[in-house]
From TrEMBL:
It comes from the Bacteria. The keyword Electron transport does not apply. This is Transporter, auxin efflux carrier (AEC) family protein. Its main location: membrane.
Length: 313
């Protein structure tokens, strides 16, 4: 078990530290790291997901519908629950509540999922990564933008929450990380398979996803101003432990397969996605809190994800 945990998590630590060291030496700035992230999101990850799903037997995908359902419960249900608690119990501003919701319920599946889930769950990893990416881009991001943008448009233009949501969904659907796995699933349904020579061609860049993304995250973490506050502690504990633990307990009580329990809980225990920091900076809301949440969630995830891997066997 210890060997499995080390095999899955040590590459994350090493690559993050290399990225952090590159930032420390000023070899890579935050802007340059953003360019690397853009390459991952527009090219490497879509190719990886497209190839992985199209190479998976349809029978395996059918068996994984429970995984998609429970990841949906964790990410969508978790988003709504965190927003309501932050807004009405902690009396936070709706913008801050939306940022906390996406920070806690939005795991960095495209970046951390590939090196971790690919080692632990080689058959179902691509499906879990695709599910997380689609749910974040089609549901979480539009919901967050409704509250972040509010009723104000650019150049004096007023937009309703419905217009904001539909505009965000439209933009999300155009992103390769969303339509590539959907297209692969449709092609799989109609019986098409991927030739080996095409698979090798697509995977050459696709396999770079995990390493490049983690290196970029390390460089970004160096550039952030990190602090520790009550809000940051609550965010990190909720993201890394509380939310995945709640879903794991629910799945265990319902008697779902141990493999599904492990895949879903480890997926949800993946640290905060950088979209929370991007939105915080763009809308000038809770910037230090989101940056600190991303930093501590990522650093401590090596311990907390290891715990969930050990618990679920």
């Amino acid at each position: 078990m210890l060997e499995t945990i080390v095999t899955a998590l040590l590459p994350i630590v090493v690559t993050l530290l290399l990225g952090y060291f590159a930032g420390l030496r000023h070899d890579f700035s935050q802007d340059q790291a953003s360019v690397l992230n853009r390459m991952v999101m527009l090219y490497a990850l879509p190719l990886l997901l497209f190839t992985g799903i199209l190479s998976t037997p349809l029978s395996e995908i059918s068996k994984s519908m429970d995984v998609f359902l429970w990841i949906s419960v964790g990410m969508v249900g978790g988003f709504i629950l965190v927003f309501l608690i932050s807004r009405f119990i902690f009396k936070s501003d709706s913008k801050v509540a939306a940022l906390r919701a996406i920070a806690i319920a939005g795991p960095a599946v495209p970046f951390v999922g590939t090196p971790v889930l690919g080692v632990l769950f080689p058959i179902d990893a691509d499906l879990a990564i695709a599910a997380g990416s689609i749910l974040m881009n089609l549901i979480q991001v539009p919901l967050a933008l409704v509250f972040l943008v509010g009723n104000g448009g650019t150049a004096g233009e007023k937009k309703s929450p419905l217009q904001i949501a539909f505009g965000s969904i439209k933009n999300a659907v155009l992103q390769p990380v969303v339509w590539a796995p959907i297209l692969a699933f449709v092609l799989l349904l109609i019986g098409l398979d991927m030739p080996k020579f095409l698979k090798g061609s697509f995977m050459l860049l696709g396999q770079a996803t995990g390493g490049v993304a983690l290196f970029a995250v390390g460089a970004v973490l160096f550039a952030q101003k990190v602090s520790v506050s009550r809000e940051v502690i609550i965010n990190v504990l909720s993201k890394n432990i509380v939310l995945p633990a709640i879903i794991l307990c629910a799945m265990f009580l319902l008697g779902l397969p141990a493999a599904d329990n492990g895949l879903v809980s480890v997926t949800l225990a993946i640290p905060t996605a950088s979209i929370a920091v991007i939105f915080a900076v763009e809308y000038k809301t809770a910037e230090q809190e989101m940056a600190s949440t991303l930093f501590w969630s990522t650093i401590l995830s090596v311990i907390t994800m290891g715990g969930f891997i050990w618990i679920t066997g």
